[in-house]
Amino acid sequence: AQKVTQAQTEISVVEKEDVTLDCVYETRDTTYYLFWYKQPPSGELVFLIRRNSFDEQNEISGRYSWNFQKSTSSFNFTITASQVVDSAVYFCALSGAGAGGTSYGKLTFGQGTILTVHP
Amino acid sequence: DVKVTQSSRYLVKRTGEKVFLECVQDMDHENMFWYRQDPGLGLRLIYFSYDVKMKEKGDIPEGYSVSREKKERFSLILESASTNQTSMYLCASSEGGRSYEQYFGPGTRLTVT
User: Fold this and answer.
1) Per-range mean pLDDT, top range of A54-68, A74-88, A103-117
2) Measured between alpha carbons, how far is A8 from A20 in angstroms, rounded to an integer?
3) A49: distance to nearest CA of chain B, Å?
C-alpha cells in the first residue's frame, strides 16, 4: 500500500521568510512519480511539479525548489522569500505502479499543509 | 489550457435525495477521477475511469456510483445522500498512463441536511 505523510498541518510565516514543506512517502514500487499541488483559496488544485523515482536531481523554479531524497523517502518543497500570494494548502502526492502495473495514474495524496504568509 | 468544469460550485441537498455531480473536460483525456476532500484527510479517491464505460473503485466507493458514457464527461452519483457525505468533491482528468499530472476542476461543495 502507498502512503504520503505531510506532518505539518499548518505553517505560519511572515513575508520574505523561507519556508519548507515536508513530504514523506511509502511505496514498494521501484518506479513511481511524485507531485506537488497548490490549492489557493479559490479551491482549484494547481499542478506545481512532477518528479520520477529515477531522477533525484533537485529542481528550482523561481522562488520554488524541491529536494527529492530516495534514501529518506522524502520530497520536500521550499519557498524562498515567501509572499502573501503563496498562502494556500499544499499537497504532496504519489503515483505508483498499482496492481499489475495498471494504476492509471491514481494519486495517493498527503493530508495537506496549510501555509499562511502574513504581510 | 486544459479545462475541467464541474456543474455546481455549491449544492445543498436533503438526506435521502439522489444527487448527480457532473464533470466535463475538454482535452480528450483518457483518465478521469472523483475525489472528496475533508479537513485533515487530504483528498481521497472515490472512483476513477480510464475509458468510456470503464470504471474502477477507489479507496472510498461506498455510497457512490459513477457513469462515463462519453469520454469528456464523468458523473458521480450519490444514490441516497447522507449527512456524512457532506464534503468538497473534486473532479480531475489526465492523459493515459501514470506519469501524467492530473488537472482539477474548481470543486463542488455539497451539504447534505
Assistant:
1) A74-88
2) 10
3) 9
Tens-place pLDDT, residues B60-79:
999 999 999 999 999 999 99
Locate B43 and state its grid cell: 483528498
Q: Cell numbers at residue B74, please?
A: 464523468
Phi-psi domain of A16 (left: phi exceeds 0; alpha: psi -120 through 50; beta: other): left
Instruction: Give B50's contacts (C-beta < 8 A, 6+ positions apart).
Output: A104, B30, B31, B56, B96
Q: What is the C-alpha end-to-end distance of chain A, expressed in Å? A: 41
In this prediction, residues A6-17 reach a mean pLDDT of: 96
Length of chain B (residues): 113
On chain B, the residues whose CB falls within 8 A of the CB of A110 are 42
Q: Which residues pair with A77 in a beta bridge?
A: A21, A66
**Confidence band, pLDDT 50/70/90 cuts, at residue A116:** very high
pLDDT for res A104 = 63
Helix residue spans in A64-114 (DSSP H): none
Asked if A96 lies within 8 A of B98 by C-beta distance, the reply is: yes
In the stretch 80-99 of chain A, residues with CB closer than 8 A to chain B read: 91, 95-98
Show the CA angle centred on residue B59, arms to residues A56 and B84, nearest 5°. 130
